[in-house]
Amino acid sequence: MSLEDELLKQRLCRIREIEALGFRPYGRRFDFTHTVSEILRGFGAKTAEELVPEVRVRIAGRVMTKRLMGKAGFAHLQQDGERLQIYVKKDAVGERDFQLFQLLDSGDIVGVEGYLFRTRTGELSVHADKLEFLSKTLLSMPEKWHGLEDVETRYRQRYLDLIANPEVRKVFLARARIISSFRRQLEARGFVEVETPMMQPVYGGAAARPFTTHHNTLDIDLYLRIAPELYLKRLVVGGLERVYEINRNFRNEGLSTHHNPEFTMLEFYQAYTDYRGLMDFSAELLAQVAIDAAGSSVIEYEGRQLDFSRIERYTMREAVMHFWEGSDRPTLENVSDPQWLLQHSGKRTPGEALADIFERCAEEKLIQPTIVYDYPVETSPLSKNKPDDAAFVERFEIYAAGMEIGNAYTELNDPQEQRRRFEMQIDMRQHGDEEAHQMDEDYVRALAYAMPPAGGEGIGIDRLTMILTGSRSIRDVILFPLLRPEGPIDLVSAMRQYDKL
Hints:
Layout: H1 3-20, H2 36-43, E1 56-68, E2 72-79, E3 82-89, H3 90-103, E4 109-118, E5 124-135, H4 151-156, H5 158-164, H6 166-188, E6 192-193, E7 199-200, E8 212-215, E9 220-224, H7 229-237, E10 242-250, E11 262-271, H8 275-294, E12 298-301, E13 304-307, E14 312-315, H9 316-323, H10 332-335, H11 338-343, H12 350-361, E15 370-376, E16 385-386, E17 389-400, E18 403-410, H13 415-430, H14 441-447, E19 454-460, H15 461-469, H16 491-497
Parallel strand pairs: 3-5, 6-10, 14-15
Antiparallel strand pairs: 1-2, 1-4, 2-3, 4-5, 7-9, 8-9, 10-11, 11-19, 12-13, 15-17, 16-17, 17-18, 18-19
C-alpha cells in the first residue's frame, strides 16, 4: 500500500471517529460573527488589557498548524489568506470537543466560538469554549514550511496553490481590482457594458487562428471568437455610442509565458473620437488602474521601475530608428523607402516588412509604458487610413515590459473601403497567411447603414495583471491555465476501495 493510500485510509477512519463523537464530517452551516481578517484589523493592535471585558467571536477557517500540550493545545486557522491562533483547553471546551480537537488534521475546516485574548508571548488568539466540525480533508496539505513549490502542481491544482501560498491570492485580488477599476472609470464616462456572442459564424476582429466547433441542430460550423470587435461596432451603428465588454477570447495558437489560448480582454468603442483621443484616454485609464491595483502609478517589474503616469510615444518608423542596434542605424529616409524595407525583411510588401522589422528590433525593448502609432495598412484591415498617407492607418499599440498590452485605432467606417480591405486579406490568405481575416458580409452591410466616426481599443487584462503584480508568466495570473492532460488520478478508485470502512 502506498503512503498516499495509507493516509487516505487513516483519514476515512477518522471520519468514523468524528461521527462517533456526534459531529457531522461535512455540510453543516456555521454563522460566524467575524472573518479572520476583520479580527486582525479590528483587534490586532489592542493590548491584553483592552480585550477586557471579553470580546466574544465566532470564526471559521482551515486548520493549518496544530500542537498538543497535554490537556490543552494551539492551532492556527486560515481564512481569506490570513491566520489566527486558537487556544483549546479541555476544561473550557469539555471532553467531547477536546477529543475532536485531538482528531483534527491540517486541512480540516472548523468553526470556533470563544473570546479574544493574548497569550504569554503576546499573540492575539481565540480562547475556545466550543468547537464545530465543518469539513474533513482526506489528503495531506503541502509541507507547512515550504508551501507548494512545484509549478505544474500549482497551476493544475490551483485550489491547493491558493491554500498554501498566500501571495498567490494577492495576485488574483489585484486582478479583480484591475477589472473593477476599468469598469468604474468607463462607466463614469458614460460607457455601457454589453455582451456579444462567443460562438460566431464568421470570425474576425483580429489576426489569429480560431477554434472550430459544430452546432448539431443547425448543422453549421461555428468559431469561438478571437475578438468581439465586429459585434461591438455593430452596436455603435445601432446608436450605443459608448460600449465596452470584458470578454473571453480564444485563439488557436501556441503556449508561452505571454500566451494562453483562452484569455481576457477589455474592449471598448467610443463614437466621435479618433486614435489620438484614445491615446490620451488610455494614458488616464492605465495610470489610475495602476494606482487602484498596486497603490502607485510607478511599479517594479523584473527589477525595473515602470511609470504608468508617463507614457512615451513613437511612430512605428521612429521606434525602428530609435531602438535599432548597430552602427548602421536607419534614417527616416531609410524606413520610408520600400526597397530598403524589403531588403531587410522577407515579407512581400513594404508595410509588412516595416512591421516585421519593428517586431524584431524594437518590440522587446519597449520596457517603459509606450505607445507606438501609425501602422502599415497591410497589418490593420479594420483601421482608417491616415488622410495624408494611404499606406498607413490611424492605429496604435501600447507596450510595457516588452509586451503588447493594448491595441487601438480610428475605426474604418467606409463600407466600400472595408470591403476592399477584406478582399486584401483574402489575397493574403491565398498567399499563405493563415491568420488573415475572413470576409464578413453582414458587417459590411452594417457599415452601409452609417457608423459615426469612432475609436476602439482592446487591452489585455492578463498581461497587464502580469506587469502590475510582478508575475513572470501569464499562467501565474490565470486561475486555471490550459495544460496538457495529466495521467490517471487514482484517488477515486482508492476511495471506492475503502467505501466499507
